[in-house]
Design a protein that fits this description.
20 helices, 2 domains, 10 strands, ABC transporter transmembrane region fold, about 10% strand, 6-stranded mixed sheet, Rossmann fold
């Protein structure tokens, strides 16, 4: 069971990123000390001026005092600017590091993790949740430090003037603490729910935009809008509850502070009227100002409550991702792969309830071509997922050149594997960089040569910017077949030791398919190839055809051998041939 992340743990983790900015934190701390001290000292000067100059009508002394007070408050203004300036620097650098670490963490997680999480929800953690942390840091770093020091220095000054009046002013503090704890207890769950629903809403938006063509072709607009409206309404409802509860703190604290102010004025005035010689009008004025100064940081901390609760809720979701175990990268590096691949009694299921592969054994000699055929859901793509170590086997083992792939370094293993998938993905970059993706050091000439072999060079040449044409996200704007050809060129350029073609020509018309078959055969020469075929006529020349059904190999051999048995493959082949 995963350990629950608690607020104290989250705050300590946020503080870890804050304290990394030592220089900015030191400047903020020093500026806050000087600023708070100048504010407290300025207030003390006001009381002195009342007793020493105003009460005796000393206008010259009052003028000198005003210049001194102006100097004190100028220092306060300068240090206030410094602490604000460096608070912005600190919060942005801290969030930059959090965002970097989170993105780096996502890059190191396994495919299993991404398959189990809605992509929009993960994007929400990287954007909305991190942004909530940033807003809290930007608003609260200075205020929290300033409020803490202000309370300490103000209390010291108040105790020096009158311990009795100080204790009276502090009578409201326990009530404020109780109110804050009660509100925090009830509002935290609403802030957490708010961030969770916001993530779900973003996931809905991401899925709707990505699948807009499917939505429109099936006329699901009204249903999608209704679904969005329900989630949006849930977010509104939870948001109101969270904000309403947190907003109670401010008026409650303000009322308590006003009560404290009135008590200090009433009792202090009464003491003077009763003949107390230790108190003066100036000192009572100081105590009243200090009582307000004491309430100000308390009110500020109450105002921060809402953003802090939201930030903590978001931070819990961010650090939940950061605590995920990364995909292990340790293992023996691979210098060169000859290409012998063995599946030995492999059993695997994406979850504990259902096995996708059952006791599968495959042997592929170096340079051979293994074709995987069978109905949808039989387990063909799962074999590829296991070979690439997107997932690890539950039972049995997979060997490459006699080495269990679980003992090999994943990065170098995958660099020796070339893949062309049925669902191609192109990045928002130039065509050249998309082809060069698997081999960044390739020259422009090598990129173009790979494109020629994939029969995509002429198509690229028709663009005004040729290979420097920028593709939109996912390659929208060009046909699925053209995206597939660019993906094939990418695999050709990578020149892998083991080649995987997962329905690689399923989205290409018959004429284009024939044109690239020769290039693919040339690419496959000397390389162990696993081919998942949509059109069975394209794998007639495979060294071995494995017929998979319900997670088991039910027939195997070359085309002629298993076709002449007139079994499952015979029926499958003839059915495909009729459709072709």
């Amino acid at each position: 069971m995963k350990r629950k992340t608690y607020s104290k743990d989250v705050i300590s983790k946020i503080w870890y990123y804050v304290k990394m900015q030592k220089a900015a934190l030191a400047i903020i701390f020093i500026s806050v000390i000087i600023n708070t001290a100048s504010m407290v000292y300025g207030t003390m000067l006001v009381g002195t001026a009342i007793d020493k100059y105003i009460m005796v009508f000393d206008f010259d002394g009052l003028a000198r005092f005003c210049f001194m007070l102006a100097a004190v408050y100028s220092v306060s203004a300068l240090t206030s600017w410094l602490q604000t300036r460096f608070s912005v620097i600190l919060s942005n650098k801290a969030i930059q590091q959090i965002r970097h670490d989170l993105f780096d963490k996502l890059g190191g997680l396994s495919i299993r993790y991404f398959d189990s999480k809605p992509h929009g929800e993960l994007m929400s953690r990287l954007t909305n949740d991190v942004d909530n942390i940033w807003q809290a840091l930007n608003q609260s770093i200075v205020q929290l430090i300033s409020s803490g020091l202000s309370i300490i220095m103000t209390l010291i000054a108040m105790f020096i003037i009158s311990p009795l009046l100080t204790l009276i002013a502090l009578l409201i503090v326990p009530s404020g603490i109780v109110i804050t704890k009660i509100v925090a207890k009830h509002s935290k769950k609403h802030f957490a729910a708010q961030q969770k629903i916001l993530g779900e809403l973003n996931a809905t938006i991401e899925e709707t935009i990505s699948g807009q063509k499917v939505v429109k072709i099936f006329g699901r607009e009204r249903i999608i809008i209704k679904n969005f409206a329900e989630k949006n309404e849930n977010l509104r409802s939870v948001g109101i509850k969270a904000q309403f509860l947190s907003s109670i703190i401010w008026p409650a604290m303000n009322s308590l502070n006003n009560i404290g102010f009135a008590l200090v004025a009433f009792i202090g005035g009464g003491l003077i009227l009763s003949g107390n010689t230790t108190l003066t009008i100036g000192k009572i004025s100081n105590m009243l100002i200090y009582s307000k100064q004491l309430s100000r940081p308390i009110n500020e901390m109450a105002n921060l409550f809402s953003s802090l609760q939201s930030a903590i809720a978001g931070a819990e979701r961010v650090f939940e991702v950061m605590e995920e175990k990364p995909e292990p990268l340790d293992g023996k590096p691979i210098t060169q792969i000859k290409g012998k691949v063995e599946f030995k009694n492999v059993t695997f299921g994406y979850n504990a309830e259902a096995q996708v592969l059952k006791n599968v054994t495959i042997t592929a000699e170096p340079g051979s071509t293994i074709a995987l055929v069978g109905p949808t859901g039989a387990g063909k793509t799962t074999i590829v997922n296991l070979l690439t170590r997107f997932y690890d086997v539950d039972e049995g083992s997979i060997l490459i050149d006699g080495n269990d792939i679980r003992t090999l370094d994943r990065n170098t293993l995958r660099k020796n594997l070339g893949m062309v998938l049925q669902d191609t993905y192109l990045f928002s970059s130039s065509i050249r960089e998309n082809i060069r993706y698997g081999r960044p050091d390739a020259t422009d000439e090598e990129v173009e040569q790979a494109a020629i072999h994939a029969n995509v060079h002429k198509f690229i040449a028709h663009f005004p910017n040729g290979y420097d044409t920028i593709l939109s996200d996912g390659g929208e704007g060009i046909s699925q077949g053209q995206r597939q050809l660019i993906s094939i060129a990418r695999a050709i350029l990578a020149s892998p030791s083991i080649l995987i073609l997962d329905e690689a020509t399923s989205n290409i018309d018959t004429r284009t398919e024939k044109n690239i078959q020769q290039a693919l055969l040339k690419l496959m020469e000397g390389r162990t190839s696993f081919v998942i075929a949509h059109r069975l006529s394209t794998i007639r020349d495979a060294n071995e055809i494995l017929v998979i059904n319900d997670g088991q190999i039910i027939e195997k051999g070359n085309h002629d051998a298993i076709y002449n048995k007139k079994g499952f493959y015979y029926n499958l082949y003839n059915g495909h041939r009729v459709r072709d």
